[in-house]
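Quick start: read one record
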Amino acid sequence: MLLMLVEAIIRPEKVQEVRQALTNIGVKGATFTDVRGSGHQRGFTHSYRGAEYTVNLLHKVKVEVAVREHEARGVADAIIEAARTGEVGDGKVFLIPMGDAMRIRTGEEGTDAVE
């Protein structure tokens, strides 16, 4: 059975809502990482001591969840539902096929390692 990595870039203020949505659908493990990036939002102009400068790397959070292939779309949908504000900068979700996974503690592989 194929494994998928669901990777999402979301607004930092949506972390708790996304975490709760994943818990509600039975996701047992997820990784949340602070990241910086740019996209359609293109940053913003800020003034400091009379000088203007453009901040074009915005703070976001990357969410990573490894699941079975048939579960990936449901996980993506839960993230989208919880993270959506309807404004530019809501983020993106990527579904990435994974070759394999191994649990360090037990040596389990494949789907057993991500459950």
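The CA atoms of residues 18 and 79 lie 6 Å apart.
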